[in-house]
Each structure stands twice: as structure tokens, then as C-alpha cells.
Amino acid sequence: MTFTVTVLPSGRTFSVDRDEPILIAAIRQGVGLPYGCKDGACGTCKSRLIEGRVIHGTHQHKALSVEEEEAGFTLTCRAAAQTDVVIEARTVAGAGEFPVRKMPTRVTTITRPASDVAVIMMQLPANDPLRYRAGQYVEFILRDGSRRSYSMANAPHTQTEKPSIELHIRHMPGGKFTDQVFETLKERDILRMEGPFGSFFLREDSTKPMVLLASGTGFAPIKAIIEEMQFKAIDRPAVLYWGCRSKADLYLHDWALQAAQQMPNLSYIPVLSEPRAEDAWTGRTGFVHQAVMDDLPDLSAHQVYACGAPIMVESAQRDFIEQCGLPKEEFLADSFTSEADKHGP
Ligand SMILES: Cc1cc2nc3c(=O)[nH]c(=O)nc-3n(C[C@H](O)[C@H](O)[C@H](O)COP(=O)(O)OP(=O)(O)OC[C@H]3O[C@@H](n4cnc5c(N)ncnc54)[C@H](O)[C@@H]3O)c2cc1C
Question: Which of 137, 226, 277, 333 has the smallest set of CB atoms within 10 Å of its CB?
Fold first, then answer.
């Protein structure tokens, strides 16, 4: 049995199978809705249900609270339509533009620029290259069918005759996938992958100055966005804030310094939360999103791209909007949620 989903204000319609989450049906049919984790943990896909009935699947209460549910909101990644439905959601131009595909990929190189970060190059099928937007992510499909998401760190134009994607993977001890990456994964191993996914990517229709905000490996999609800007000679002013614990965690610090040197419109501000004595750090310290607020107390004319630890993304979204006047729709983010966030309180 199928139902019709109508998205307002665009008026776009698509079909959804009974018990299929609305977002999954939208992705399948190339309809660009906003989303992040697809797993009920980040809240990016929160939309207003205007008409019809859905079953709200399991989700985190911080992504959709009981009060929000009662006020008519739903998470499209978890909402299974039981009738025709009408939802109010921004449509994201370009989000469904490239087909989502499953493919085998081969590990070509693994490097360890920091003790808990692996940079992995994955070779893709040459005859049918992956098309994606700078900022999007892919999912590895593990043997038991579970999935883990990683953002491309290289811009799409780098797909040459030997197409490959660069991924930055942080070790989460006890984690199902990253324990394997840090203990047994080796060059030439084959992994199954699906993508591209995500509505976090460079908005080329805006001319607003940009804040690029990363914590840890949240730097990966931001690097792809910077590469894309450089390649396309996009000269919007942009300032990169990269937050890590100590100097050693800024695993591509030299890359960022060089990008800022090559691009007159880009500046780079690294921020350490726990600098070590041996770092002899004279730069910025504290929470990275606080550094943005100290420098730019008025964000009303900016566009923000934030990526990394869920706590950083949540704090930035709340404080930038409430305290710095950032328009809600100008906060674009991917929150790196994991199993810990999906099973938390
Ligand atoms: C859109 C998106 C993009 C992402 N991009 C990146 C990226 O580019 N780079 C990157 O490093 N990460 C990224 N992530 C995070 C990544 O997908 C994984 O969540 C992360 O790598 C951990 O995977 P894992 O299998 O090793 O750990 P998991 O198995 O998810 O476990 C994570 C932690 O939770 C604990 N845990 C497991 N199960 C439970 C439970 N039931 N209750 C409580 N705790 C539990 C584990 O011990 C471990 O410490 C992204 C996430 C999203 C949603």
C-alpha cells in the first residue's frame, strides 16, 4: 500500500510505502529534504506534520521532544505514514540530485596523522564514478547490516581517472567499526558502501560570509567545501574555526594554514580546549563555538557550516541563533552521532 506525501510550501509530492520512513522514500525518489543522521538522533529532519497520520518511530528525545511531538512536529527519518500526509519542510535544492548507489570500494592507503585519526583513501569503480556535493557523506554497510557514516574530505572535482574518496575516521574505543579500522583494516581490503547522502553541502546560491566550524574529524567535510571553493574560485569571505583538544589533534593544521595562505577570502583560527604544556600554544583556547561568538557577536548576516561532535553542533546551533541573531535556516550542520547518542538518555 502506498500513500502520497505533499511537501509545503514547495508543493512537491512523492509516494511512500506503508511503514516506510518518509525521508527514505524521499531519498529514493530524489526529493531533497533536510536531514543528517537518518537515525532519529540529530533532529535535522524535524518537520511539521500538517495533515495525515504517522507513526513516530524510536528516536532520541533531544531530537524530538514530547512537547514538539504534541505540537505537531515529526522526524521524517522515523515517521512512517499511515495515510496520505502533508508536511511543512524546506526543500533543499541539489540534495537529491545525484543517484544514491551501493558499490564495493577498496582501501588504497591508510595513514595516521594523529594517534586516534585514520585518513583512508578508498578506490571507487572507475567506470561509474560517484557523484556528490562537497560536504556529503557515504555509509559503510557492515557484515551484520549495520551502517556507519563518513563524510568525504575531498571535493568532487578530485575524482580523476582513478576515482577515490578520502575519509577521516576518529577511533571511538569500543566502537563496532572504528575498532576494526584501527586494529585489523589493511590496504586492499574491500568494504561495501552506499552514497552519497546528506543535505549538508556548500550552498552556492548564497553570497553571505561563511563561518566554517569543525571539531575533530568534523574537519573532513569542511576540507571538501574549502577545496570546492578554491576550485570554483568562490570568493565569499569565509573563516574556518577548527576546535581540537591539543595541537597534535589538529591533524591537518599545515593543510589549513596553506589553504588560508592561498585563498585571500579564507582565514583560519585553530582553537584548543586542552593544550598541553609541550604545545607551547599561544593561539586561541576554550570551546570552539565560543571563539566564534567572541569574534562575531552578530551573525545575522552570516551562513554557518558546522560539523563534528554532537555537543558542539547543538551548542553552536542554540547559542548562535539565540545570542548572535543567526537566522535559523542559515545554520547548516552534520552532527557526528554514534551508537552512544542513539542509546543515550
Ligand atoms: C552524517 C554523519 C557523518 C559522519 N562523518 C564522520 C566522519 O567523517 N568521521 C568520523 O570520524 N565520524 C563520522 N561520523 C560518526 C560515525 O558514523 C560513527 O558513528 C563513529 O565512527 C563511531 O562508529 P563505531 O562503529 O566505531 O562506534 P559505535 O559502534 O557507533 O559506538 C560508538 C561509541 O558508543 C559506545 N556504544 C556502542 N553501543 C552503545 C550503546 N548501546 N549504548 C551506549 N554506548 C554505546 C561504544 O562503546 C563506542 O564508544 C559521522 C556520523 C554521521 C551521522
Answer: 277
Q: Take atom 22 of ligand 1 and give the residue whose Cα is closest.
A: 338
How far does the centroid of ligand 1 lie from the alpha carbon of residue 61, in Å?
Answer: 19
Residue nearest to atom 15 of ligand 1 (CA): 336
- 176 and 146 in contact (C-beta within 8 Å)? yes
Q: What pLDDT, in 10s, does the model give residues 97-139?
A: 899 999 999 999 999 999 999 999 999 988 878 999 999 999 9
Q: Which long-range contacts (CB under 8 A, 24 or more apart) does 105-109 make?
A: 105/165, 105/190, 105/191, 105/192, 105/193, 106/188, 106/189, 106/190, 107/185, 107/186, 107/187, 107/188, 107/189, 107/190, 107/191, 108/164, 108/187, 108/188, 109/187
Residue 160 has pLDDT above 80, yes or no: no
Domains parsed from the chain with CATH numbers: 2-88 (3.10.20.30), 101-197 (2.40.30.10), 210-342 (3.40.50.80)
**Is residue 89 a contact partner of residue 34, using CB atoms and an 8 Å limit?**
yes
Pocket lining for ligand 1, CB < 6 angstroms: 36-37, 137, 148-151, 168-170, 172-178, 198, 217, 220, 334, 336-340, 343
Q: What is the DSSP letter of 279?
A: G
Strands (E), 159-277: 164-170, 190-197, 210-215, 238-244, 266-272
> For residue 36, which atom of ligand 1 is closest to its CA?
1
Which residue puts its alpha carbon closest to atom 34 of ligand 1?
Answer: 340
Ligand 1 closest atom vs CA 179: 26
C-alpha cell at 43: 533532529
Q: Say how many Å lie between the CA of residue 337 and the centre of ligand 1.
A: 6
In this predicted structure, the answer to whether residue 22 has a pLDDT above a threshold of 70 is yes
Distance, CA of 245 to CA of 255 (rounded, Å): 18
